[in-house]
Q: What sequence folds into this?
C-alpha cells in the first residue's frame, strides 16, 4: 500500500488547517455561502436533505485495516454509527455537523486519509479495479498509476475550477471492473506489440442525464507520458468546455460537439508541447511508487488446498458462497474475497461501525491487513489463504456479512435517493430493499444467474442505472414517485446504455415488474445464457410485451 | 481598486482606452485595451503609447496575442465568477508556454483561497476590493510548503528587500517566473 512520506503528512495538515480556517470564516460571515460552497465541496462536504454529508475518499478503493477501523470510529463518534460505501469508492457519512468537520479531517489525516476532491468541479477521487494487484487476469497493477494520478491531481492549480466535475477510472485487466468507459477519462492498461505496457485512453464517457459510452482517443500511450497526456486533455477541456449550462458542461458534451477525431487532434497537439516537460515521469519516480505496491510476502501453497475442498464438500452453504464471492488470485493457494454489503432487505453499501471494525480485524487476521472497496458497494479482502476461507466465512457470518450473492440479482447498486439526497425524485433504498427481499432465496438467485440491477433516485445516475442489465430510475410524475425501467445496460469493456421499456411504474408495482422481467427471461433463455445474453439475442421487445401485457 | 503584488499593495495604473477615447490620453498614459481593440489597432497603439496592457476575456484564446507579447506590458485576466477557471489555463499558457515576462493580473471575482493556484499558474498580481485584505492574502500565499505537481514556481513571500522602484512596477521587467520549475515534486 502507499505509505505517506513526510511531505504527504505535512500537506494534509496544511490542508486541514486551511479548511478549519475556511469554516471559521464561514461561521464568522466572512465567506458567503456561495463562496464557501465550492470550498467545502472540494473537501467533500455537501449540504443534504437533513444534514451535512461528508464524502471521504478511498483512493482507488484501497484501505488498510487501520484505516477501516478509523472509518468505523468516525461513524461512531461523529455520525449515527454507520457509513455508506458508494459507487465511486468513497464512504459517505450522512449526519455530520459542520463544526465537527475539521476534527474529522484531522482524524482522517492521522491514518493517511482525506476528503480532498471527493466533490466539486475538480478532478475527483480516482477509481480503479477493486482487484488491482491481485487479480489473476491482470496485465499490470493499476494502483501504481492511480496513486500517481491521485498525487498529480491533488490541488492541481490549473484544474481546480473546471467547468464540471471530472472523473478518472483505471483498470489493469482486459476485463474491465472499473467501468472505465463511463468516466470522463478511462484508462486501460495494454500491452503493445513490443510487449511494453501502456494505456489505452478513453474520453467522454459518463452517465447523468446524457449517458455516453466513452471513445478511445489513443490506443497506446507509453507510461512515462501519462501525466502530460492527462494534462493535455484537461487543459483542452478547461479552455473549451461549456460553462453556460451546467448540464452541458461535462467533457462528453465537448467531445460530442467537436467530434472525437477533432478532439483527439487537439489533445495530441497540446500534448506535443508538454510531452517532454517536467511532467514526463522518470523511471526512478515510477519505481519509487511501484515499491509501495510490491506484492506482500506470500506463502508458497500447493493447489489444491485440501482443507478448502473438504469444507466445500461438507458445507453446502459455504460452497455456495465460494461460487459467488471468490475471485481467482495471482498467487496459488490464495483467493480474493468479496464481502457482500447486500443482505436481503439491507441498504446496499451500508456498514455499521461494528461491521467496519470487524472487517478491519478480519483483514488483519486473514488478508494481510488490506481491504478494498468495490464500485458495486461491497468490501474486498484481497489476500486470503484458501485454507482460511471456511473460518473467515464463519466469522463473517457472525457479523451478518456472509451473503453469497456477489454478481447476483440481490447484489444491487443503489444511490441514497430521497432518503438523504436533496436532488432525488424518488426513494431508491426502499426499492432496493424490497427487491432484495423478494429474490432472497439463494436457489432462485443462482438459477437466475449473473445479472446487475442498479437503482438511481434521479437522472443524475449516481446508482449507475443506465448501465445495469436492469436499471431502475426514480422519476417524479405529478408529485408521485415513479420508476422507469431500462434493460440492456452493461458497465464493463462492452459498455452499453440500457433501453427504456416503456411508461414508468408506481413504487408498489416495481417488484412485480422486475419479477415479470425475470420470469420472461427464464422462459426464453437458452441453455447457459445470462440475462444480458438473452437481451442481446432477442432485444427488448419480448420483455416489453410481457411487462405491459396487462396495462 | 488596489492590487496585491509581491506581498504589497499597489494602485492600478492602467487606463482603459474605451473610457477616455484615444485622443484624450497622452503617450505616457499606461493604456489598457481589449483583445478586439488590440487586433484592430495594434500598430497605432504601439506608436501612440509607451506602455500597453491587454485585457483577455475568458473566452479569448491567449494564443491570439502570442506573437505580440514583446509589445505588451501586462495581461489582465478577468474572472466573471471565481469558479470560472479558464483564466488559470490562460495564465499558464502565457507564462509557461509563450514565455511572457510582464505582469499577469487577475481581476473580477477572485478569492484568497485561490491565491496559490493563481501564482502557480503564473499570475503575479491580483485586484482586491479592499487593502485590508493584504494580510489574509499573504497568509494564503504561504499556506502550502510544497506541491504534488510541477507547475510554475511561486514567487518568494513578501519581503522588505524586494526591488520597489517605480520603473519596474507595472508591467515592467519584474516577475521572474522560471518556466515549469517544481517547488516540491513529491514522487
Ligand atoms: C448524496 C448526495 C449526492 C449528490 C448531491 C449527487 C449529485 C450528483 C449529480 C448532480 C450528478 C450528475 C452529474 C452530471 O451529470 O454532471 C451525479 C452523478 C453521479 N454520482 Fe452522485 N450525488 C450524490 C451521491 C452519490 C452517491 C451516494 C454515489 C454512489 C453511490 C454517487 C455517484 C455518482 C455517479 C457514479 C455519478 C455518474 C457519474 C457520471 O455522470 O459520469 N453520487 N451525482
Ligand atoms: S442519483 Fe439523484 S437521488 Fe441518487 S444520489 Fe444521485 S443525485 Fe441523489
A:
Amino acid at each position: 500500500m502507499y505509505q505517506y512520506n513526510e511531505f504527504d503528512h505535512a500537506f494534509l495538515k496544511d490542508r486541514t488547517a486551511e479548511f478549519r480556517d475556511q469554516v471559521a470564516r464561514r461561521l464568522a460571515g466572512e465567506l458567503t455561502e456561495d463562496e464557501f460552497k465550492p470550498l467545502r465541496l472540494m473537501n467533500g462536504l455537501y449540504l443534504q436533505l437533513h444534514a451535512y454529508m461528508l464524502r471521504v475518499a478511498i483512493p482507488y478503493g484501497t484501505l488498510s485495516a487501520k484505516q477501516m477501523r478509523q472509518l468505523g470510529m468516525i461513524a461512531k463518534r461523529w455520525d449515527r454509527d454507520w457509513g455508506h460505501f458508494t459507487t465511486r469508492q468513497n464512504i459517505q457519512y450522512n449526519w455530520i455537523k459542520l463544526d465537527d468537520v475539521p476534527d474529522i479531517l484531522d482524524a482522517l489525516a492521522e491514518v493517511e486519509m482525506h476528503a480532498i476532491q471527493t466533490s466539486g468541479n475538480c478532478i475527483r477521487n480516482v477509481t480503479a479495479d477493486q482487484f488491482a494487484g491481485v487479480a489473476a487476469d491482470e496485465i499490470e497493477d493499476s494502483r501504481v498509476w492511480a496513486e500517481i494520478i491521485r498525487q498529480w491531481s491533488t490541488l492541481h492549480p490549473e484544474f481546480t475550477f473546471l467547468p464540471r466535475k471530472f472523473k478518472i477510472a483505471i483498470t489493469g485487466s482486459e476485463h474491465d471492473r472499473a467501468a472505465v468507459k463511463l468516466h470522463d477519462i478511462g484508462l486501460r492498461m495494454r500491452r503493445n506489440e513490443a510487449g511494453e505496457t501502456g494505456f489505452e485512453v478513453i474520453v467522454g464517457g459518463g452517465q447523468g442525464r446524457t449517458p455516453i459510452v466513452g471513445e478511445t482517443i489513443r490506443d497506446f500511450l507509453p507510461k512515462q507520458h501519462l501525466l502530460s497526456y492527462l494534462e493535455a486533455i484537461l487543459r483542452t477541456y478547461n479552455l473549451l468546455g461549456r460553462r453556460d449550462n451546467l448540464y452541458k458542461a461535462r467533457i462528453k458534451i465537448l467531445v460530442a460537439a467537436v467530434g472525437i477525431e477533432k478532439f483527439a487532434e487537439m489533445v495530441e497537439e497540446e500534448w506535443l508541447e508538454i510531452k517532454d516537460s517536467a511532467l514526463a515521469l522518470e523511471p526512478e519516480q515510477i519505481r519509487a511508487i511501484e515499491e509501495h505496491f510490491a506484492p506482500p510476502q506470500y506463502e508458497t501453497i500447493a493447489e489444491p488446498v485440501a482443507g478448502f475442498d473438504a469444507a466445500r464438500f461438507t458445507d453446502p452453504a459455504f460452497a455456495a458462497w465460494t461460487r459467488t464471492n471468490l475471485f481467482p488470485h495471482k498467487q496459488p493457494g490464495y483467493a480474493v474475497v468479496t464481502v457482500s454489503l447486500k443482505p436481503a432487505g439491507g441498504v446496499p453499501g451500508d456498514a455499521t461501525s461494528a461491521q467496519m471494525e470487524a472487517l478491519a480485524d478480519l483483514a488483519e487476521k486473514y488478508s494481510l491487513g488490506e481491504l478494498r472497496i468495490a464500485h458495486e458497494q461491497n468490501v474486498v479482502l484481497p489476500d486470503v489463504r484458501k485454507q482460511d476461507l471456511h473460518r473467515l466465512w464463519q466469522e463473517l457470518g457472525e457479523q451478518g456479512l456472509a451473503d453469497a450473492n456477489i454478481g447476483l440479482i440481490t447484489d444491487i447498486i443503489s444511490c441514497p435517493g430521497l432518503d438523504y439526497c436533496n436532488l432525488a425524485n424518488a426513494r431508491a433504498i426502499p426499492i432496493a430493499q424490497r427487491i432484495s427481499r423478494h429474490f432472497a432465496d439463494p436457489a432462485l438467485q443462482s438459477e437466475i444467474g449473473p445479472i446487475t440491477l442498479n437503482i438511481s433516485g434521479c437522472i443524475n445516475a449516481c446508482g449507475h442505472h443506465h448501465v445495469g442489465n436492469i436499471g431502475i430510475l426514480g422519476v417524479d410524475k405529478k408529485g408521485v414517485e415513479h420508476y422507469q425501467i431500462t434493460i440492456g445496460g452493461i458497465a464493463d469493456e462492452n459498455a452499453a446504455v440500457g433501453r427504456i421499456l416503456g411508461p414508468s411504474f408506481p413504487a408498489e408495482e416495481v417488484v412485480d415488474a422486475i419479477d415479470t422481467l425475470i420470469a420472461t427471461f427464464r422462459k426464453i433463455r437458452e441453455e447457459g445464457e445470462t440475462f444480458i445474453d438473452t437481451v442481446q439475442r432477442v432485444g427488448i421487445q419480448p420483455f416489453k410485451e410481457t411487462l405491459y401485457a396487462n396495462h | 481598486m488596489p492590487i496585491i503584488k509581491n506581498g504589497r499593495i499597489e494602485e492600478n495604473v492602467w487606463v482603459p482606452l474605451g473610457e477616455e477615447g484615444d485622443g484624450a490620453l497622452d503617450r505616457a498614459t499606461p493604456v489598457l485595451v481589449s483583445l478586439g481593440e488590440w487586433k484592430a489597432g495594434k500598430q497605432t497603439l504601439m506608436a501612440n503609447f509607451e506602455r500597453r496592457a491587454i485585457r483577455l476575456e475568458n473566452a479569448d484564446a491567449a494564443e491570439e496575442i502570442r506573437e505580440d507579447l514583446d509589445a505588451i506590458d501586462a495581461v489582465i485576466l478577468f474572472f466573471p465568477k471565481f469558479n470560472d477557471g479558464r483564466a488559470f489555463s490562460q495564465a499558464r499558457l502565457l507564462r509557461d508556454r509563450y514565455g511572457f515576462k510582464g505582469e499577469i493580473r487577475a481581476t473580477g471575482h477572485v478569492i484568497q483561497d485561490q491565491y496559490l493556484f493563481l501564482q502557480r499558474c503564473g499570475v503575479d498580481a491580483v485586484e482586491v476590493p479592499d487593502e485590508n485584505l493584504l494580510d489574509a492574502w499573504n497568509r494564503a500565499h504561504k499556506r502550502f510548503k510544497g506541491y504534488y505537481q510541477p507547475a510554475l514556481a511561486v514567487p518568494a513571500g513578501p519581503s522588505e528587500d524586494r526591488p520597489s522602484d517605480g520603473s519596474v512596477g507595472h508591467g515592467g521587467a519584474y516577475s521572474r517566473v522560471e518556466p515549469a520549475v517544481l517547488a516540491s515534486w513529491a514522487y
Observations:
- The pocket of protoporphyrin IX containing FE (ligand 1) is lined by residues A 46, 48, 53, 86-88, 92, 164, 167, 206-208, 250, 415-416, 420-421, 423, 460-464 (CB under 6 Å).
- The mean pLDDT of chain B is 81.
- The interface with chain A takes residues 58, 61, 82-86, 88-90, 92, 97, 111, 113-114, 116-121, 143-151, 180-182, 184-187 of chain B (CB under 8 Å).
